[in-house]
TrEMBL record:
This is DUF1206 domain-containing protein. InterPro entries: DUF1206. The keyword Protease does not apply. Keywords: Membrane, Transmembrane, Transmembrane helix. Pfam families: DUF1206 (PF06724). It comes from the Bacteria. The keyword Cell division does not apply. Residues 29-97, 114-179, 205-274 form the DUF1206 domain.
Length: 276
């Protein structure tokens, strides 16, 4: 049955997100999401200064680092559950919509929520696999997936399109950081001026740095497909290594690493101030 009023849509969206337990789990998921980014930033910093010990600076490396801590398996399952709750919350917003009277803006937000749900679900699965002892390198997984898709009819076009989408996501993150549009997602009314300023700076730096890294990932994927060099189709770790190889790469990678750490802190702060 079609929805005829914005009020009905808003009511359904509010009901979908009105689970106190889901909200608390989702807020816990934001902390887990932030911790993963803090670890990626730390690993990237180690790569920049030659102390990484071969650990990849990507999601698999971050989760593997977490697994090595005391009670690491328990921590990984906590991360997996929290991220799954985040995925369910974003799915509910993607299905039932956002309370916005502008239809185009509402649809755009629904698509964004759907994409975030996929990302959170994938991270939850990765955490669960590492907890079960069957995780694999993100870069290796991406290279294998790319090779498989390239074998499909029209596979090269699909991979190039995927690379361009990733580049677009990176550019969107940079724009979001510069314009501070992420402030629409958090409630700053209860913050002191100092805290508000700090949160805004963390968000800006974090979104820009992550956007740059994602743009490089998309660029590598597209370049690998166009030049028939499948080994170049690496994930985040490969992108960070590419940044390191540039002039002044150590300092560029350090800036990106600190940006990931800033994004991680921002995500953790969102667990307190995020509108849900």
């Amino acid at each position: 049955m079609a929805t005829t009023t914005d009020g009905t849509t808003e009511s359904r969206a509010e009901q979908a997100g009105d689970s106190t337990s889901l909200e608390w789990l989702a807020r816990g998921g934001l902390i887990a999401y932030g911790v993963v980014h803090l670890l990626v930033g730390w690993l990237a910093l180690q790569i920049a200064w030659g102390t990484s010990g071969g650990t990849s600076a990507d999601t698999s490396g971050a989760l593997g680092t977490l697994a090595q801590q005391p009670f690491g398996t328990v921590l990984l399952w906590v991360v997996a559950v929290g991220l799954l709750a985040l995925a369910l919350w974003q799915t509910s917003e993607a299905v039932w919509g956002h309370p916005d009277r502008d239809r185009r803006k509402r649809v755009r937000k629904q698509i964004t929520s759907g994409a975030k749900a996929v990302v959170y679900a994938a991270l939850a699965v990765s955490a669960a696999l590492v907890a079960l002892g069957s995780g694999s390198s993100s870069s290796q997984s991406q290279e294998q997936a790319t090779t498989g898709v390239l074998a499909w009819p029209g596979g090269r076009v699909l991979v190039v399109a995927a690379g361009l989408v990733v580049i677009g996501v990176g550019i969107a993150g940079i724009v979001k950081g510069i314009r501070k549009s992420f402030t629409e997602e958090i409630d700053t009314s209860s913050m002191s001026p100092a805290v508000r300023s700090g949160v805004l700076r963390l968000g800006q730096v974090g979104y820009v740095a992550k956007g740059v890294a994602m743009g490089v990932v998309g660029g590598l994927l597209t370049y690998a497909t166009v030049t028939f060099d499948r080994q170049t189709a690496q994930g985040l770790d490969g992108a960070l290594q590419t940044i390191l190889a540039q002039p002044f790469g150590r300092y560029l990678l350090t800036a990106v690493a600190l940006g990931f750490a800033a994004f991680g802190l921002f995500a953790i702060l969102q667990s307190r101030y995020r509108r849900m």
